[in-house]
Design goal:
The protein is mainly β. 11% of the residues lie in helices and 51% in strands. The strands form four sheets. Strands 1, 2, 3, 4, 5, 6, 7, 8, 9, 10 and 13 form an eleven-stranded antiparallel β-sheet that branches.
Length: 394
């Protein structure tokens, strides 16, 4: 079974380069200030890029442009990057790598900065792995970093330089913006975007909020009934139950990660499941009774592979983190106790509403003797193959 699933997953992954990332209408401005309209491969970059891929027309060959030859590029009504030589402080956020200097330690670099809010005052961001820095400019002034730096104090505690608040208070004054608002600002995207929107609104300036234009539905709640085929093998009475059908029902909370074209998500799913075997009159089915009902709590991750605007394939992996077993669950006279195990699935989602998934839940032990003199686990392997149907409420 595992070999078959791995084979199917390999086939699915071979589609990874097909239509999941599209070329979208955009432009770039070269070093001669010439604006070239083109199609840009939208990777929905998590880290700020140093290059991009483009086509002049739909059926033409793709080419690359780097930061050395492009002053600005963007995808219409979606995102924009500008090249700038800026002073940036790359101090780590990890305690073990902090220094004793409160002041920011700058170095000049040429970077593509992502425009978050563009107006009389403009907010930019730069992300490089675990480093996040924000920059700003007013009118045509030079772009400056909003300073935020952690450091070690003489008392060997972690101190924070929140100079960015002074920068905003001194440079972006407006009657509607009170000092307390600036004082409570956090050095994070949502706070800073809202502040720059408020400032441009207060000064009656036109502005573009690129973050608002890029907002996507980043949460899905899906009801997921399923048909389970479960098997149990154990050295208890040489039990060997195969492909016993049962039903289950789950509610999946999916949190879409806001980068890389929404291809990755995190999952939490509580699922009710039932596995029952009744002892037959002729003593078949190893002459045992089984009643195992529980609510399983699983956590995992999912990766989407886009086929077109409405259809996408997905693969996911999950971990059974907790199994709330009903009080009347038992296997003959044995207690039922499960442990962590890993599951793998693949499926198809249509129109962000309907889905079908095939999931394999790997072996896990489940039988424990109730005899006080025999308090041990019987060797047992319980596994499930499920066909899951999904309907996303939102």
């Amino acid at each position: 079974m595992k070999i078959k699933l791995l084979f199917l997953l390999t086939i699915i992954l071979s589609f990874n380069g097909y239509s999941q990332i599209s070329f979208e209408n955009g432009y770039y401005i070269d070093n001669n200030n010439q604006k070239i309209n083109c199609l840009i491969k939208n990777l929905d970059w998590e880290n700020n890029p140093t290059q991009f891929t483009y086509k002049l027309i739909e059926n033409s060959k793709s080419n690359k442009k780097t930061i050395k030859s492009v002053k600005e590029f963007g995808i219409h009504n979606s995102l924009k990057y500008v090249r700038s030589a800026v002073n940036i402080d790359r101090t780590s956020k990890y305690v073990g790598e902090l220094d004793n200097e409160k002041k920011a330690v700058f170095q000049e670099e040429e970077l593509f900065l992502k425009v978050l809010v563009e107006g009389k005052s403009t907010l930019y961001s730069y992300v490089d792995s675990n480093l996040t820095r924000y920059f700003y400019s007013i009118g045509k002034s030079n772009i400056k970093q909003l300073v935020f730096k952690s450091y070690i104090t003489p008392e060997y505690k972690v101190g924070v330089n929140n100079r960015f608040r002074n920068q905003l208070w001194n440079d972006l004054k407006c009657s509607d913006i009170k000092k307390n608002r600036v004082k409570n600002l956090k050095y994070r995207k949502s706070d800073l975007v809202n502040f720059f929107v408020a400032y441009n609104t207060c000064t009656n300036q036109e502005y573009i909020n690129f973050e608002e234009k890029q907002k996507k539905d980043l949460f899905n709640l899906t009801i997921r009934p399923r048909l389970n085929s479960s098997s149990l093998a154990s050295n208890y009475r040489n039990t060997n139950i195969e492909n016993e059908l049962g039903f289950g029902f789950g509610i999946e909370a999916e949190f879409i990660l806001p980068f890389n074209k929404n291809k990755w998500s995190l999952l939490i799913e509580p699922t009710y499941q039932s596995f029952m075997i009744e002892k037959s009159n002729d003593g078949s089915l190893n002459d045992v009774d089984a009643n195992y009902t529980s609510i399983e709590f699983q956590a995992g991750a999912r990766h989407y592979l886009f086929l077109n605007d409405k259809s996408k394939i997905f693969i996911n992996a999950s971990l059974l983190v907790y199994d709330l077993i009903s009080n009347d669950s038992q296997f003959d006279s044995l207690k039922i106790r499960t442990s962590y195990n890993v599951g793998f699935g693949f499926g198809l989602k249509y129109n962000d509403k309907y889905s079908i998934e095939c999931r394999y839940q790997g072996h896990r032990p489940m039988l424990l003797s109730t005899d006080s003199d025999l308090d041990f686990e019987w060797a047992s392997k319980y596994k499930t193959l499920s066909i899951i149907f999904g309907y996303s409420l939102f």
